[in-house]
TrEMBL record:
GO terms for biological process: ribosome disassembly. Residues 8-281 form the Tr-type G domain. The chain holds residues 1 to 397 of 671 of the full protein. It is found in: Cytoplasm. Catalyzes the GTP-dependent ribosomal translocation step during translation elongation. During this step, the ribosome changes from the pre-translocational (PRE) to the post-translocational (POST) state as the newly formed A-site-bound peptidyl-tRNA and P-site-bound deacylated tRNA move to the P and E sites, respectively. Catalyzes the coordinated movement of the two tRNA molecules, the mRNA and conformational changes in the ribosome. This is Elongation factor G.
Length: 397
């Protein structure tokens, strides 16, 4: 039997985007690639898996944040879908409270748009580490460098571009991975890339971009600067660890690119999620509370009604929750019993016996708890307060 992933192999992440940038398509492609869905969802025919609410389908926008689990390369990814529309800012706020990291999706033609700015600033306030995915590189007028400039100018970040596109617009076929200096090309209609050496015509550009990446990293990261001064170059290993530290500290933002619609660039995006975004143990509130024997505490971030009944989606911040446990809803002052614990996958719910601090699950049997409520061990009542940038979650006794 498979053992439960250790928390170092968990990524609780959100996908943040302006409406239409391609968040739904990126999510679908991730679920498809990770095997969580077996048919490829398409946005235009209303069969996508994450947009399951009829109202949502009608409006063509993602209203309700859904959490979906999938496995990738020995890691569990809990994808917390966040609404891109400003009307649903409370939902955005709640989902930002439960994620450890995010992928911000941008349109390669439009670059940074007004809603991306407001979601970005909120993510800053919540101290959510991010990587960026510049999507739609296949579109006429797509321009990675212009999109990267808009990240720098409008979001005041330091973009750290780790890929170079191969081909433009309709002829966009893949990327050069600037860390490994390898070409990744997606044959039409396939989700997996063929890896090869950098095409001759692109070598000079790829070297120039690699150099620019090394210089930008050296400028931001003391250990990298030391190596850069000594060898006037940075190794792949140094780049990788410096990029991770810069992502976690918010000192810079790793930028990848692709075309979700054409299934190009999704696997490197997943590799970057695993490489650069934090596990729950990198988040102070969980690191300190990772003792599974500690009293249980969790934050409810979404409630919905599905074929499995009323589901209460929660992030466990402390201790362990087991099937049959009694929990106190501190806001309602009610004690409830956990009927089932479910891992929500794209096309099914999987029963689990327990969940520990850092994990995201849905529970059935809880009748009263609303989004924003704290569920905790009846003998150790507390309220999980909205996090500040400095301390992701504070416990108030
Ligand atoms: P969301 O509103 O951010 O969830 O965006 P969607 O995923 O619904 O995408 C908005 C529109 O852009 C849909 O018509 C998609 O088919 C289209 N789209 C998404 N990704 C790409 C892409 O990589 N290239 C192109 N050309 N279109 C895309």
């Amino acid at each position: 039997m498979r053992t439960v992933n250790p928390l170092t192999a968990v990524r609780n992440l959100g996908i943040l985007a302006h409406v239409d940038a391609g968040k739904t398509t990126v999510t679908e492609r991730i679920l498809y690639l990770t095997g969580a869905t077996h048919k490829r969802g398409e946005v235009h025919n209303g069969t996508t898996v994450t947009d399951f609410d009829p109202q949502e389908r009608d409006r063509g926008i993602t209203i309700f944040a859904a959490a979906v689990s999938c496995d990738w390369d020995g890691h569990r990814l809990n994808l917390i879908d966040t609404p891109g529309h400003v009307d649903f800012s409370d939902e955005v706020e709640r989902s930002l409270r439960v994620l450890d990291g995010a992928v911000a999706v941008f349109d390669a033609v439009a670059g940074v748009e007004p809603q991306s700015e407001s979601v970005w600033r909120r993510a800053d306030r919540h101290g959510v580490p991010r990587i960026a995915f510049v999507n739609k590189l296949d579109r006429a007028g797509a321009d990675l460098d212009a999109a990267v400039d808009s990240l720098r100018e409008r979001l005041h970040t330091v973009p750290l571009v780790v890929q170079a596109p191969i081909g433009r617009e309709d002829g966009f076929t893949g990327v050069v991975d600037l860390l490994r200096m390898r070409a990744l090309v997606w044959p039409d209609g396939q989700g997996t890339y063929a890896e090869g050496s950098v095409p001759d015509g692109l070598r000079e550009e790829a070297l120039r971009r690699r150099r620019a990446l090394e210089e930008a990293v050296a400028e931001l990261h003391p250990a990298a600067l030391e190596e850069f001064c000594e060898r006037s170059a940075l190794s792949e290993a140094t780049l990788r660890s410096a990029l991770r530290e810069l992502t976690l500290s918010g000192g810079g933002v790793v930028v990848l690119c692709g075309s979700a619609y054409r299934n190009r660039g999704i696997e490197p995006l997943l590799e970057a999620v695993v490489d650069y975004l934090p596990s729950p143990l990198d988040v102070p509130a969980v690191r300190e509370a990772a003792d599974p024997a500690a009293p249980f505490a969790a934050l409810v971030f979404k409630v919905n009604v599905t074929a499995s009944g009323r589901l209460t989606h929660l992030r466990v911040y402390e201790g362990t929750i087991r099937k049959g446990d009694a929990v106190l809803d501190t806001r309602a002052g009610r004690t409830e019993r956990i009927g089932r614990i479910l891992r929500v996958q794209a096309d099914r719910h999987v029963d689990v016996d327990a969940a520990v601090a850092g994990d995201i699950v849905a529970v059935a049997g809880v009748k009263s708890a609303a989004a924003g409520a704290t569920l905790c061990a009846p003998g150790a009542p507390l309220v999980l307060e909205p996090p500040s940038a400095a301390a992701p979650v504070v416990f108030v006794a």
